[in-house]
Amino acid sequence: MLGHEQPWTAWRAAMNGHRMHHAWLLAGREGLGKATFAMAAAAELVAEAGMPQPSPESHPDIHLLIPLPANDDEAKKMEDRRPYQKKRSISVDQIRGIQRRLVTRPTLGARRAVIIDSADLLEKAAVNALLKSLEEPPQGTFFLLVTHQPGRLLPTVRSRCQVLRFHTLDDDQLARALDMGAPGLDEATRRAAVAVAAGSPGAALHFAEQDLGQVFAVMQQLVERGDPDFALRGRLTEVIGARPDRERQMAAIEAARMVLVLALGAADDARRVRIADAHARIVNLAAQAPIYNYDPGLLVLEIGGLLASAARTREAASR
Q1: What is the CATH number of the domain that holds 64?
Q2: What Pfam families does UniProt report for this protein, alphabetically (predicted)?
Q3: Bridge-partner residues for 170, per DSSP?
Q4: Cross-strand partners of 141
């Protein structure tokens, strides 16, 4: 993937070194492909010369820990290879389950890898349980911890890990990623995806998949002009859709957040205060939306109102 050249260089140098560190922190913004890198790096790590290797997803010596399905219905969707909702955290039982497997030797070679995607989602008890393995790693076991916010991890976890940093892409690289991952985009959507993604190819592709080009344009108008007659909020509801699903709602909230970030650079001091306030409330909304069952129509109106509140004049932004 684009932007992985430096992490690969560091990883392969470590593999070829005298003694490879047992725990790695893959740090960087969400959407940079850290989990994809982790699977590919783990496959290189556990491979034995002359021995056929299964795919990383089915390899007995590569263990991937992610949040479990939210309930039995979602578990059935996972079994049927359909999109499914996950729990919000990785539990201590999952960590203990993998620790029980680590008392045996690797299956196909001398090494095995444990990937946690992401370490930000570990329950407190799960972190404490993991620390025991990081402090006394089983022979031949290597940990790859994907993290989007390394500063939120316990210092005791960070101190036991070698850090691999993943950097955001520039606009030209993002455009290339879009051309490869979502060919045929119209130019307006392509430009909007690059603007919203802030260097994250995953975010750009997700924006493109959700077809939010028109949504982004209306959001920009709300921030610039306000919406004294509610016309733009009506238009926003129209282009988002009457009943957007949870994924589309979250993508729209992130698009609104980035519209505010982009507006900040050209704002005067008074407007910066309004933008900052609207941004804080959008961030709070993003945290609440996956938990509370908001009415989709009212949620879109709330997003539109927050954007309008950050317009150039209070009068134009009246709600």
Answers
A1: 3.40.50.300
A2: DNA_pol3_delta2
A3: none
A4: 112
